[in-house]
Amino acid sequence: MTTDRINGSLYTRIDNKIAFVEFGHPASNSFPGELLQRLTDELHKLSGNPDVSVIVLKSEGDGAFCAGASFDELLAVSNLEEGAKFFSGFANVINAMRKCSKLIVGRIHGKAVGGGVGLAAACDYALATEQSAIKLSELAIGIGPFVIEPAVSRKIGKAALAEMTLAAHEWKNAYWAQEKGLYAKVLENVPELDKELELFTSKLASYNPEALAEMKNVLWEGTENWDSLLYERAGISGKLVLSDFTVKALNQFKKK
């Protein structure tokens, strides 16, 4: 079951110190700006909630985990200011995930593209299924994964990042993503994923919350410059999306 709301949906359920944050959008769980802002706000709120020790980030349905940023909104960008604002949406979410005092576990049940790969990378621990292939296709339309790059490189390294971004039309399978460090475990199917998720998060939530918060700080050491870096990167993408190359590439998609 997936939402039919044009701006997407976001629901949070808290159970035994675990907050389950579920997002959804009818276009393969992609993110319009409004939904990105709602997720950012929710993560900030949960960060200060003493009744939560662990956050599970998941998406609706049984198709894609996340197709990245809204293509309709990308097509509508018409000036530098709009471009920077559009690409800052994922910068806000990734920084909220980074600075959240709670450990975030990703439930990656299906394919992830572009910003969806960035979301998976910004999780502190990610569990996936064999269907959870990944792709960074941005170069194919004349831009690049500049905003999410720091999060992705932090997990898989620059060499694997180059392998993904330069082969912009190529899917990497879930086991490749596990081997490179993006996924902690790959399960055969969704029932197995949910069983492993329940075991892992229940155990994690039973640990000292102060120790978990300190561990979170350690895991993200050296990323303090992301407060400015990710927005500089949003400016790069915002400029490129207005280039003749990208406008022409996007118009090809419009015609399809």
Structure explained in plain terms:
By secondary structure, the protein is of the alpha/beta class. Helices cover 50% and strands 15% of the residues. It has 10 helices and 8 strands. It has helices at 33-47, 71-76, 80-99, 115-122, 149-166, 174-180, 190-205, 209-219, 226-240, 244-255; strands at residues 9-15, 18-24, 54-59, 103-108, 112-113, 125-129, 134-135, 185-187. The strands form 2 sheets. The protein has a 6-stranded mixed β-sheet, sandwiched between helices. β2 (18-24), α1 (33-47) and β3 (54-59) form a beta-alpha-beta unit. The longest helix is centred in the middle third of the chain and has 20 residues, at 80-99. It is globular and about 55 Å long. The two termini are 27 Å apart.
Topology:
Layout: E1 9-15, E2 18-24, H1 33-47, E3 54-59, H2 71-76, H3 80-99, E4 103-108, E5 112-113, H4 115-122, E6 125-129, E7 134-135, H5 149-166, H6 174-180, E8 185-187, H7 190-205, H8 209-219, H9 226-240, H10 244-255
Parallel strand pairs: 2-3, 3-4, 4-6, 5-7, 6-8
Antiparallel strand pairs: 1-2
Describe the structure using short key phrases:
256 residues; alpha/beta; 6-stranded mixed β-sheet; two-stranded parallel ribbon; 8 strands; 50% helix
Number of helices: 10
Strand order of the largest sheet: 1-2-3-4-6-8
User: What is the H-and-E element order?
Assistant: EEHEHHEEHEEHHEHHHH
Q: How is the main sheet built?
A: 6 strands, mixed
Beta-strand content estimate: 5-15%
Q: Helicity range of the residues?
A: 40-55%
Radius of gyration: 17 Å
Shape: globular
For the termini, the CA-CA separation is 27 Å
